[in-house]
Amino acid sequence: MRTLRWTFAVYLAAVLVVTCWPSPESTAAPGWALAVVDAFRAVGLPMTVAFLEAASNVVMFLPFGVLGLLLLTGPDARGDLAADPARGLWRRAGLVVLAGFALSLAIELTQLLIPGRYSTVQDVVLNTTGAALGAAAAAGLLALRRARPAPSTP
Q: What is the SS3 assignment for the chain?
């Protein structure tokens, strides 16, 4: 559990660096984004910088959903998980999504004060979607794992 907490802390620090670091005031797409778009186009897959940016916002918050739910349902989790495991699991997934929304909103509000950063409602929606997809995937896997019968010992 300690490793999971540290992983989540490092992940959050990385998200804050990526989203809150001042950037030069420019509307041009970064070189790495253009290189990725060109690579996709080179193999025949249509790609735009706008789609890449949107997908990046979703992907950036997938780990939030997975790690957040794993932390909430760790070995020391009690309460509604004991009474109704399935309902408790999805309730905790909902809390993780709500926390992802709150973090994204806080980031976007902070970006209003940072030179070169642009705050959008779209980013909040896409980040929250990423947290929801991550939490749903983790909840689904945890539910499958719990539903599987324990191995019998001879």
A: CHHHHHHHHHHHHHHHHHHHCCCCCCCCCCHHHHHHHHHHHHCCCCCCHHHHHHHHHHHHHHHHHHHHHHHHCCCCCCCHHHHCHHHHHHHHHHHHHHHHHHHHHHHHHHHCCCCCCCCCHHHHHHHHHHHHHHHHHHHHHHHHHHHCCCCCCC
